[in-house]
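Protein folding task:
====================
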Amino acid sequence: MNKLQALFLETRAPFLTVTIIPVLLGTAMALKTGVPFNWQIFLAIMFGFVFLHLGTNIINDYFDDINGTDRINKEFVFPFTGGSRLIQMDFLKPKEVLLESVIFFILGSIFLLYIFYLKGFYILFLLFISLIAGIFYTAPPFKWAHRGLGEFFIFLGFGPIMVTGAYYALSGNLNVQIFLVSIPIGLLASSIIDINEFPDYNADKVTGKRNIIVRIGKEKGVIFYMITGILSYFIIILLSILNIMPFWSIISIFGFLFYLKAILILNKNYNNSLNLVAACKLTIFSHLVTGLILIIVIFMSK
């Protein structure tokens, strides 16, 4: 593997669906209100959040190595948990990974600062929160994931921040409706982190990365994961009935079939990391399918 290949793999780009979906959702909501589509603004907000996501992936790999979490992790489920493993396998040096993350954070910031220049201070606020959440997810002094706040910041970043950010970038305004619509997709994004914390449980516990699953234990963690998913789909049903989203958004609960299968797998195998591969995949797929259906329904209802 050459250096460029390693640097690309370090980004963990296949997980970008978790960013693309909320940006498209916010875009669909804006177009639904009659806002004209602007390719320039859309691409700027998309690339801005994509680059911030990549920067976050990479810098967390760096600090999970520095903190020892990924170095001692023998139960990871690649590629879903335990980081990219590129530092541990000596394909990349820590300083190269750190530099790569800084480059992506700068690129993401440039795109969002451009939107701020065009639209206003809300984007600057989102950029500030995104940087604080992404950089310090595992980095000192905050180490959000170590304090049991990582899941909250995942929900916030891949839900309200990205959905409302895309909506505001195109429309120039905000409302309560767009915040409500962002909640279920944010919860489903946080579930992806929840399921990934089960294989990493022992390494996280030893190195003081006291995320939600480490704090409450695996058995209660299964319940927490289940409640998060059920709540996501309950909110979708409620918002559809209340016409906050188009009524036919309710069909997006089809995605719950994948989530339910993941629950059943997790409930039987929460102590067996190797058997959680399918559950990790299904959780990502439930987020993707649910998000795509919502986007299509909302776009077609405009």
